[in-house]
Write a structure and sequence with these properties.
With 163 residues, the chain is of the alpha/beta class. It contains four helices and seven strands, in the order αβββαβαβββα. Helix 2 crosses helix 4. The chain is elongated. It starts with a helix and ends with a helix.
Length: 163
């Protein structure tokens, strides 16, 4: 193989690797969401404005009752709710029907704020769940995670926003 061909092959390989890395980064980056612009409803249909919760750190978790990784992390969110108490607002958001969310919440004896998104997640740019956003008390996004969190990751991220 000539030296020119080897150089061209190497350049093509670098371009392909760069493309794959960029695609993986884009795929693993949660979409940017204006939390204060979300229209949510409690399980009785009453509208909830997240701006009313904005004076303290906030965790928004987008999940579904059908999602295995979501169901695995729910107990960790419930535990974090008890651990951090009123230092942080933890809101679990599903785009499923309020009835389905309420049935899940009751069956699993959940205590946190579970709400319904009036927009399908795909309209928000969320293609897969779970996705979790962590906001400081000023309402600024500190970090986001596009996959299930274990209890240690969740606690560490909450500690970061309540400092």
């Amino acid at each position: 193989m000539s030296k020119t061909r080897m150089v061209l092959l190497f350049v093509a390989l670098l371009i392909a690797v760069g493309f794959l890395i960029e695609r993986k980064i884009k795929h693993n980056t949660p979409p940017s969401i204006n939390a204060m612009g979300l229209v949510l409803q409690d399980l009785n249909g009453k509208e909830i404005a997240l701006s009313d919760l904005a004076n303290k750190p906030m965790v928004l978790n987008f999940w579904g009752t059908w999602c295995g990784p979501c169901l695995q992390e729910i107990p960790g969110f419930e535990k974090a709710g008890k651990q951090f108490g009123d230092k942080v607002n933890i809101v679990l958001i599903s785009d499923e029907s309020p009835e389905k969310i309420a049935a899940f919440r009751q069956k699993n004896n959940c205590q946190l704020l579970y709400v319904h998104s009036s927009k399908p997640f795909t309209d928000l740019g969320i293609e897969a769940v779970p996705v979790t956003y962590f906001y400081n008390a000023a309402g600024e996004l500190v970090t986001a995670k596009k996959s299930a969190l274990n209890e240690n990751e969740l606690s560490a991220a909450i500690r970061e926003i309540i400092q």
